[in-house]
Amino acid sequence: MKIHRRNKDKSGNPLTDNMDLSQRYRKVEEIKLGLHLEENLKTLLQLSGNSIDVKFRRFSINKNIPGVLIYIDSMINNASVEEILRVLMIDTQKIECRDESHQLLRTAIKDLITVNNIEEVNDIYSLFAKIALGSTAVLIDGQSEALVCDTTGFKTRDITDPSAETTIQGPREGFVETLWVNTSLIRRQIRVPHLWIEGLEIGKLTKTMVAFAYIKGLADEKMLAELRSRLNRIDTDSILGSGYIKEFITDQPFSIFPLLLRTERPDIVCSAILEGKVGLFVSGSPHVLVLPAELPMFLQSPDDYYEDAIAGSFVRILRWAAVSISVLLPSFYVASVNFHQELLPTALLLRVTASREGVPFPVFTEILIMELLFEVLREAGIRLPAAIGPAISIVGALVLGEAAIRAGMVSPAVVIVVALTAIAGFTTPVYSMSIAFRLTRFAFTLLAAVLGLFGVQFGLLLLTTHLCSLRSFGMPYMMPVAPLIMRDMKDNIFRLWVWGRDTRPKLPGKREPYRQASGQKPGPVKSYNKKENKNGY
């Protein structure tokens, strides 16, 4: 049998303390397992640095063949490891082959071990990568391949209600930090073999598992090829969350608007996958990326679909109106008071002018001070403990607002405008989109202070042009408004009844445009005329 020779430096050791990370990385990739157990253990000890959680548990097969179990103590299921050890020390006595260099020994051990997912590896790099995921490696003297058994048993967070995306009537399940738990939540909802989940490792040091789920035959193959290409070209040391992946694969990284939807809710991801989109999972992150994404997705809530169509449409229209208020109200106030007083009723203009008597700052400076103050309070409320965070934010806003008015630093009208703007901004369901709207509000306020309503109009023109130019994996960000797709408008600002949404969105679901049979409007039995699904399934 051929013995793999390890590359060594001049000192005779494969790894030395004065090696840089890149040198160690290249050297470890070259090291192969040898036939001598003690040499393999010496290399592994040099690699792990005698870490206290990496355990080397020795045993003997038939009292004459030494071996060792290697695992990370906090990552394994102890019962599985004990079962493997029992098999190696007791059940192997039935093995007729006693030649430790023979292939039959390793094959017999594989047949005796009842743990699922047993693999053979012949290099140190792959061996330690498997151990780091919770597996246990079995090294036997005279064998140049190690058996790696899946003994994963580390603790994970329970599935709970996502705190950032609460609903009144929707499911109470949310994603967690474990990749396979998250994919199982999708499998439980979409129970067909056409749901494909592909995975790959990204990150030289973190070895983060990334997976994406889609329905084969429904998702666009060109989009999937583009996604694979963007993921495969990522060359970095670490991926610690979905935010890292998002910045690597987004179409236009300099836009403040999120081009991928990030969510903790399995029902949102399932709904997107059923439309022909893709769900991107990252190990260690409870947030799943949905792609491609369009702007209306960020202003929709699962509660819209758990109410009837009329109530859902009303809430959705209210949400769009609130977003418009949060973005444009401060700029309209600044433009009206500074440049276009004739637009205000006389009584209101006199009241606003009187309230500003003695205020030492211009209107724009007042708005800017109060907006920044509120942003600081908002950030402080997020960072404070949950028990006192909301109370501190509310009390701080009331006390500071009242003190600023009494001190004559700002006018009462500005406090009202900023308060209405903040309340309207809280209606945005997705946090990343609310940040984009807040930044846009500052830009509109600055344009209004310089050019008045003409500046606001110019800002709206720039904003519309920018939004229409954005793409999310090749899909227009403003669809179905730009380009105008009339059949998709039924689930945009308004929400149509479920029985009326018989088609998928035109661009993501173009391969299978019909999702259900038409003619299912409720009515008397004699007038019920169900038509066959045009897709034939």
Topology:
Layout (H helix, E strand, L loop, with lengths): L20 H10 L6 H12 L5 E8 L3 E8 L5 H12 L13 H10 L5 E4 L2 H8 L3 E6 L5 E5 L28 H11 L5 E8 L5 E8 L5 H12 L9 H8 L11 E3 L2 H8 L4 E5 L5 E4 L11 H4 L2 H30 L7 H10 L7 H21 L5 H18 L5 H14 L5 H21 L1 H17 L1 E2 L2 E2 L61
Antiparallel strand pairs: 1-2, 2-4, 3-5, 4-5, 6-7, 7-9, 8-10, 9-10, 11-12
Describe this structure in words.
By secondary structure, the chain is an alpha+beta fold. It has 3 domains: 21-150, no CATH class; 179-293, no CATH class; 307-476, no CATH class. Helices cover 42% and strands 12% of the residues. Strand 11 (471-472) and strand 12 (475-476) form a beta hairpin. The chain is elongated. The protein starts with 20 loop residues before the first helix and ends in a 61-residue tail after the last strand.
Uncertain runs: 1-12
Percent in strands:
5-15%
**Tally of domains:** 3
Structural class: alpha+beta
> If you compute it from the alpha carbons, what radius of gyration comes out, rounded to the nearest whole angstrom?
31 Å
Distance between the termini: 57 Å
Give the key terms.
537 residues, 5-stranded antiparallel β-sheet, elongated, alpha+beta, 3 domains
Quick structural gist:
The protein is 42% helix and 12% strand. It has 537 residues and is an alpha+beta fold. It is elongated, with a radius of gyration of 31 Å.
